[in-house]
Amino acid sequence: MMMDDDKDPTVDGGTEETPVTNAAPEASEETVEASAPTEQVAEDEEEAQPAVKVIRKEASRVEVVLAEEVKEEGVEIEEEDLSGATGSAHDDFNWNMRARSAASRYSADERTSLEQEYEASMTNIAEAEIMSAKVSSIIDGDVILDLNYKSDGLLPLSEFRDQDLKVGDTVEVYVEQQEDERGQLVLSRRKAKLLRAWDRIRDSYANGTVINGRVISKTKGGLIADCGGLETFLPGSQIDIKPIVDYDAYVGKTMEFKVVKINETIKNAVVSHKALIESDLAEQREAIIASLERGQVLEGIVKNITDFGAFLDLGGVDGLLYITDISWGRINHPSDVLDLNQKVNVAVLDFDENKKRISLGLKQLLPHPWEVLDETITEGSTVEGKVVNIEDYGAFLEIQPGVEGLVHVSEVSWSNQPINAREYFTVGEMKKARVVTIDRDDRKMSLSIKQLASDPWERINSGFGVGSNHTGKVKNLTPYGVFVELDEGIGGMIHISDLSWTKRFSHPSEFTKVGEKIDVVVLEVDEENRKMSLGHKQLEENPWESFESVFPEGSYHEATVLRKDDRGAIVQMPYGLEAYGPIKLMRKEDGSIAEVDETLTVKVIEFDRESKRLTVSHSRYVNDIRREAKDQVSKERQEERETIRKAIQKTSASNEPSTLGDLSAFGLLREQLSNNDEDGE
């Protein structure tokens, strides 16, 4: 291979040797064959020419060959007709020239020394390493790089788009190959950047150093940041200490990061900007906590709102404001009072230096409402409040924020019937009540709604005497009866047995529903216990006094099965009367049990006027029919036998001799009589 002009080696104490191309005028267009050994001497050489230096490249190794003087006349040159040659100097060169050199005039030691001197003048380059190179020139979009090596590197200018490159600049490149198939040095700026970027990322992960990166795009769950040519993942939770909603606002920004996770296998990394912010705030947090005092008032910014409270940024340290410390009054959610990014003044209630926890209070900056409660609110005064909480035992009314009173269920109505507080009260509604008791020291107040009206039981006998008829509203149903409201605060119960004379109900809901109107008669009044017994069936005459003659025991009636269970069935009798049939007595002739809505004949087997109970049976009726049919058949056969006997007796008593025909008829009658007797048995 030909060497560059500026890298010709020298021998003999620095005397510059003439390159092969200038060794002799006759050889200006000739070269020594590279395949011929430099120390081989041609047999036909008679005279050595002047000493020349030939640099030969073989298997990535440069070899300096020192040749003895070769006699000019000893060199055989094969001429070539170049009269019509065109193109470059290589095209005009006579490649068939052969040169034979004499034995070297340098010893082996001298030759080794010169080779070592030449090797030392070059940079030692190894593949897969990053080297520094100097920009020697920029020509037509290509950058020529000098690595102080036997050949220069060549890279496209497009690999240096990230910097304003000029001649003389030093850049880092990655050595991919010392020589390619054409003997050229193969370099890569991109790989050098990626390896340097990965080294910085590994250093940041190991030592916590800070790296710079540019956010280039948004991806699922975060952002993609270019850190020195290497793409890294920035999770959304690691962008800032506060939640980020708009990721697009960060695209195109240059930010500082810390590496929090790496994958050596795929050269991937996860970075965090939040970690830098937290580390910066750590010192501020320590300083703030060290200066905290209970009762100290601080200004904070609401950074997050949860169901149980709000987190405030106190300038580098977070504090928690519980929902119970936001207002003296009841609130459903902290967002009812606070907004995100709102500035508020809070008091320090407690803090833990070890756990870095700070408890804050907002309501503590205001006086307690009980301390400034209006003095006109006393026992017996009327107040109005909002229902803020409902329990089974009553409801709490908020007279003003932080001042509440309890309305017990017993103070809702003058009626002695049970009250369901959750059905009577609704959270948020306004109610008026009378103050029954008030204790400013213990901050307690009991209220009453029923005391806003007069006690109706004081006039109970004048308007609701025993035997009086009224129309009331069904307020509640229980398994044993119906509660009916006759007037405000006055009501009574209809027992389930007093709903109907003729029907039996398993539950009052089969007869009426809550909210319906119902006619009643007052049966009994207990003023002391404020109780009233009502009846509905008593509005009609008791039909059981006449039922005894209509449904006597042993009588048969058509009935329809209304309902049944494992023990028996309820059947509908005439006149709307319901009767009970035990399950074993409701079996039909084919052995099956009567079904619901099936009509069949039943027999009354029990009539209890006092208990108003009627028991019937269908199987008894079937047995009776069978017995009657059998008795009728027996009676008819008996009459037939009597007739035959009388005929026989009459024939026997006659004196006339029997003819052959008479004897035949007599035999038939006897045979018939005998058969009848057998059937009777």
TrEMBL record:
A GO CC annotation given for this chain: cytosolic small ribosomal subunit
Residues annotated as transmembrane: none
Any single biological process term in GO: translation
Basic and acidic residues composition bias: residue spans: 632-645
UniProt keyword annotation of Methyltransferase present: no
Keywords from the UniProt entry: Repeat, Ribonucleoprotein, Ribosomal protein, RNA-binding
Origin: domain of life: Bacteria
One Pfam family hit: S1
UniProt xrefs under Gene3D superfamilies: Nucleic acid-binding proteins (2.40.50.140)
UniProt xrefs under InterPro entries: NA-bd_OB-fold, Ribos_protein_bS1-like, Ribosomal_protein_S1-like, S1_domain
Domain S1 motif: 128-190, 208-274, 295-363, 380-450, 467-537, 554-619
Chain positions covered by the region annotation Disordered: 1-51, 632-681
Polar residues: compositionally biased ranges: 649-658
GO molecular function: mRNA binding; structural constituent of ribosome
Family stated for the protein in its record: Belongs to the bacterial ribosomal protein bS1 family.
Protein name: Small ribosomal subunit protein bS1
Record organism: Neolewinella lacunae
